[in-house]
Amino acid sequence: MKITLDHVTKRFPNRNKKIHEDVIAVNDFTFEILDGKLIGLLGPSGCGKSTTLNLISGLEMPSAGRIFFGDTDVTNLPAENRGVGLVFQNYALYPHLTVMDNITFPLGNLRGAEKLTKEQMRAKATEVAKLVQIGELMERRPSELSGGQQQRVAIARALVKMPSVLLLDEPLSNLDARLRLQTREELARIQRETGITTIFVTHDQEEAMSISDLIVVMKDGVIHQIGKPQEVYDSPCNLFVAKFLGTPPINVFEGCVRNGQVFIGEEAVLDVKLTGDAGAADSGDGSLPVWIGIRPEGFVPANDGRLTCALSKIEVMGRDTSVVSTHPSFVGTTIRSIIPSEDVTGIGGEIVRFRLKPSKVCLFDKTTEKTIGFEAR
Length: 377
Ligand code: ADP
Ligand code: MG
Hints:
This protein is an alpha+beta fold and 377 residues long. Helices cover 23% and strands 35% of the residues. It folds into two domains: 3-244, 3-Layer(aba) Sandwich (Rossmann fold); 251-376, no CATH class. The chain has nine helices and 22 strands.
C-alpha cells in the first residue's frame, strides 16, 4: 500500500500550562512511501516520530493536511478501519493469555462476513508464528518468554490480520544489544517476505540505516532529509543530519574557504571549486567561514598530509585502528579517525599528518549550517 502525507501538521496544546503557544509536533510533512518499502523515521527523542506514526495509524487526527493510503483519503477514517498493524516499544501482551491466544486476539473482533471460526483463527496464528519463528512457544504465557520472544509475539499479533501497513514504534528499544541486532535482521526479513509497507521508528541511526530502503531524518517536528541511507550519509543536506548519522560521528572543524582552498587554521587542507551559490561567493578574494565535517574514514595518515594534528592515542580494534588526536580548530574534544589496521604504519610521536579523502569531507555554511557543494580539484 502506498502511503502519502500531504502537508500534514499536528499541533498539541502545550503541556506546560504557562506557555500558551501550541507544540508543533509535526510541521508540514509531505512525503510518499512507495508500496512494499521499509521506511525508517529517524530523529532525536521528541522530534515527532511517534506522532507521525500515530497520525498514519489514525490514533491521532492531523490539525491540517491529508493522508492517503493508495488513492484513498484516510484522513478521517478511524484507526480500526485503516488496516494497519501496530507494534510498540513495550510489547503490551495480555499476561494471562497464552501466545496463541494473544496472537488470535485481534481476529476475535472480526464480525459479519469476515468472522472466523476458532480453527481458522488458530490456523492463521500458527502461520504468522512460523513467520516470526515462535511456532514452538504457542502454549506459553508472556512471563515465560524472553524479551525478544515477547516482541516477536507482538509482531505476530500485528501481522495476523495481514495489515496493508505495518507501523513499528521503537520496537527494539527494550532488547539487549545482541538481540536487537538479531531482531532487526528478522524484521527486515519478515518485511521482505510479506511485502507489507512498513514504517519503522527509531532514534538509533545505525538501526535505521541498516534495514531501511529510505530514511526520513527529522528534528523538532521538521523533516530535514529523505533519502536512501547511503545517500544521506554521503551527502547530508546540513550539519545536523551529518552529525546525526554515523558512528563514530563526523569530525567537525571550524575553518574557511579562501581562493579555492579549504583552510583549517593556517593549513590549506583541500583544493576545491565551490558549486552553487557559494561558488560565486568564493570568486573574489574574500574568505567564506565554514564548518568542515570529516568522516572518521576520511583521514589518510601520510607524511605529506596537509592537516597536522596532535596525536593522543592509537586504539587497535582488530580490522581497523582508531587514531585519536586533537586540533585547536576542532569542535569538541577529540578527533576520531578510523584507519584500516594494515595502513597504520609509522604513526607515533607527538603529531600525525593526514591527507583527506574529498568524498568524505562536507562543507557547511557557518551561519545557516546548510551544505555547500564543492568539487575537489
Ligand atoms: P518522538 O516520538 O520523536 O520522541 P513525539 O512524537 O512523542 O516524539 O513528540 C513530539 C513532540 O510533541 C514532543 O515535544 C512532545 O512533548 C509533544 N507531544 C506529543 N504528544 C503530545 C500530547 N498528547 N500533548 C502535548 N504534547 C505532545
Ligand atoms: Mg516516540
